[in-house]
Every structure is written in C-alpha cells, then in structure tokens.
Automatic annotation (TrEMBL):
GO terms for biological process: L-arginine biosynthetic process. It comes from the Bacteria. Catalyzes the NADPH-dependent reduction of N-acetyl-5-glutamyl phosphate to yield N-acetyl-L-glutamate 5-semialdehyde. Its main location: cytoplasm. HAMAP family: ArgC_type1. Keywords: Amino-acid biosynthesis, Arginine biosynthesis, Cytoplasm, NADP, Oxidoreductase. Its EC number is 1.2.1.38. The keyword Glycosyltransferase does not apply. Coiled coil: none annotated. This is N-acetyl-gamma-glutamyl-phosphate reductase. Pfam families: Semialdhyde_dh, Semialdhyde_dhC_1. It comes from Rhodopseudomonas rhenobacensis. The active site is at C155. One of its GO terms (molecular function) is NADP+ binding.
Length: 351
C-alpha cells in the first residue's frame, strides 16, 4: 500500500515535534514536508536532537512550498492563530484536495463575532471557518470522517469536555453550577522564549493566569451549550504547574434532579466503555498526570463531595498528546480511513 504524504507546518514547536515523534512510527504515512520559517535550512535533528538518527525532510520556509506540486494527502498546521488563517486559505486554494488538521484556535469557534471578541481581530478565512469540523473525536467522530478541515480542540477544553459533555447531554448535572479548576504543564505555553517562562520564574511556584478572561472559555461555552441544548457559561480558571507535560482538571458539579455522584460515574463508564482513549477509573479513585504522560489517553475519576448532591470529577491528559498532537493524529486516522488508534496506542511513560 502506498503511504499517504503528510506535511507539518510549524515543525519546530513542541506540538510539531510531538507530531514528528508520533508519525515516525505510523505505518501508513510518510513525512514529506516540515516547515519552520526561523529554522529554514536546518535539519530537524539540529532543532530537536532526539530526531538526529532518523531520515526526515529538511526544514523549509512556508513561502517556498509549492502546494499544487506536492499534492499532500494531509497537512497538520501547528502555527500561531491568525497566521494559520492566511496560510490555510492559500494552501486550500492551490491544493483543494489536501486535508487539514489545524492545531491552532483559528477554526474552533463557529461564531465569527465570538472569534473577533476573544482574539482581537476579524477572521480572515470565513468560508473555511464555515466548513471546519470540531475535532473532539469522541463527540464528532462521524463528521470528522467526512471532513476536509478539522479544528483540533484545545488541551484545557479537551480535558474538561470529555467528562462533562456526556453528563450535559444526559441532563444529569446542573449546567449553571460547573466549576473547572485546571492546571497545565509548561509546554502548554509554547516554545517561544518568554521571560515569565524561565526556569527561575516558574520553578517552585504555582499560579493562576487568565483569571476570568481566558480564551478557552469561548470554546468551552460553545461546546457545553451544544451538549446541554441551552446556553451554558462555566467558571474556568487555568493554572501553571512547574512540570513539562500534563493537564489536571478538578471539576465541581451538582447532580440534577437528585442524581448522585455514583450515577454520574455510571453514565461516564457506559459512555466510554468502548472508547480506546478515555478510561474511567473505579468510583472514588482519581488519576495523576503521570498516569497519562506521553500517551493519547484521558483518565477520569469521580468521587462524592461531602456536600450532598455534589460530585468532584478529576480528569487528566497529556497536553502535547491527547491535548494536541496525539488527538490530531487520531483525527488524521479517521480522515484518511485508517484504524483510529494507529500510531498512537503507546502506553504512558512511567516513571
């Protein structure tokens, strides 16, 4: 079987490197394009030494790529928001049969006005925005299979949606009483040099950020409102942990119409019984970030709160894998007709 030709735009960032790590062992694809404007002309092994033993395309600038000539089957776009819109508009105009998984936030929001509000500028590819499919596989699997452009979800949002969407769809929790207390590792902030991300600035500390106005709120509200069938606005606060990988969300909910924590747990167990990348722990147990490190797995635990009628849900995933690149490969597998777990079924790295 001829391998599918794959490109990664923005290969010199953390999510780009994670895509390379996963796709190197994927049996049905071939990496033929890696872009990184500031690193153009360099080998991938020069930027990330772990790739030095492998034969990979040299990094090139996006402006030098002839999309029509390459005839790529699928492109992963790991570029900053706004930049992505311009690049993908050009790519799909010149190579309309190429499929795209976008890891930026540019196509996650259905409402162009909401995008402008949260990202500070008008959307520059509205026609593409209309066709984009939201890429949370466990919810939109059928639509993803038919899509040309998939908007890979955010890491924080995936970690919160996987436990909450089934409960909202089942009308099992009060939609107006959801509190999401989330923590992420440092790689969630990207690879660009930033003073606030220096080791001495973050080590031995722990802080909240984006309090009351984080951009992921728009994505959460959109998807929770769809699940509940009514407008939902949640309380969400992100925090920065001095670790490399991982997201842990502690979520507080109230059961609706007398639903107990045990009943909420049962709904999640039934929902995810056959899902390859979501595992619900026995009632009362909660997961650690190290249980999913380097894997595409999400683990969910449910416990009863001491306040009657309330439950505490703990959800964890690796922000670079299920929260970004692993989920992107999961989307690619569906879009190209492969078995969903191909190339991303590795267990967590522990210790």
């Amino acid at each position: 079987m001829t391998k599918k030709k794959i490109g990664i735009l923005g290969a010199s960032g953390y999510t780009g490197a994670e895509l390379v790590r996963l796709l190197l062992r994927h049996p049905k694809v071939e990496l033929v394009l890696l872009t990184a404007d500031r690193r153009a002309g360099q080998a991938m092994g020069d930027v990330f030494p772990q790739f030095a033993p492998y034969e990979l395309p040299q990094l090139v600038a996006i402006d030098s790529v002839d999309w029509a000539a390459l005839q790529l089957d699928l492109v992963f776009c790991a570029l900053p928001h706004a930049t992505t819109q311009v690049v993908l508009k050009d790519l799909l105009a010149k190579a309309p049969d190429t499929k795209v998984v976008d890891l930026s936030a540019d196509f996650r929001l259905d409402d162009a006005a909401a995008y402008a509000k949260w990202y500070g500028h008008e959307h520059q590819a509205l026609e593409l925005q209309k066709e984009a499919v939201y890429g949370l596989v466990e919810v939109y699997r059928r639509d993803i299979k038919k899509a040309r452009l998939v908007a890979n979800p955010g890491c924080y949002t995936s970690c919160a949606q996987l436990p909450l969407v089934p409960l909202l769809k089942a009308k099992a929790i009060e939609p107006d009483e959801i509190v999401i207390d989330a923590k992420s590792g440092m790689t969630g902030a990207g690879r660009a040099a930033k003073e606030a991300m220096l080791f001495s600035e973050v080590s031995e500390g722990f802080n909240a950020y984006g309090v009351g106005h984080h951009r992921h709120m728009a994505e959460l509200d959109q998807e929770f409102s769809k699940a509940a069938g009514k407008p939902v606005v949640v309380s969400f606060t992100p925090h920065l942990l001095p670790i490399n990988r991982g997201i842990l969300s502690t979520i507080y909910v109230r059961g609706r119409r007398g639903k107990t924590a045990q009943e909420l747990h049962a709904i999640l167990v039934e929902t995810y019984a056959k899902e390859p990348f979501v595992h619900v722990l026995p009632f009362g147990q909660t997961p650690h970030t190290r249980h999913v490190r380097g894997s595409n797995m999400t683990m969910i635990g449910v416990a009863a709160d001491r306040i009657e009628g309330r439950a505490i849900i703990v959800s964890v995933l690796d922000n670079l894998t299920k929260g970004a690149s692993g989920q992107a490969v999961q989307n690619m597998n569906l879009m190209l007709g492969f078995a969903e777990s191909t190339g991303i079924d590795q267990p967590a790295m522990f210790p």
